[in-house]
Structures are given as structure tokens and as C-alpha cells.
Input
Amino acid sequence: MTATVERDFRVSAGGLVARLSRRLSRGLIKWTDTMLAWQAHRRQLRHLASLDDWLLRDIGLRRGDVERVIRDPRGR
Output
């Protein structure tokens, strides 16, 4: 009986470790994707901010549009 309980505990503990490992891995991947997207967004904003007013008008933006997004990228 004791051997069965020990074996069952090891199996369930191994399953728990595997589940926690998968969850941690998914969380790390999600965090990395979020950080990469944020970096790309900031890079694009820096590029827009570097354009002169004529080029911004050519693509349908004004200097104030770019500055507003830089100040609050969530659009609040």
C-alpha cells in the first residue's frame, strides 16, 4: 500500500511540475511577444516623429497627431 501511495504521489507531483513548467513557458512567451510589440511600436513612433510636417501631411497626419500618440499610446 505504501509503495502505491509513493508512486501515485511521484506521478502526480511530476504532472504538477510539468503543468507549472508549461504555464510558465507560455507566460514567458506572451511577455516576450508583448515586449517585442511594444519595442516595434516605439520604433515606429520615433520614425513618425522624425518626419517633417510635409511628409506627415502626405500620409494624412499632423504633427499633433503624432505627439498625442507619443504622450498617450493607449489613446486616452
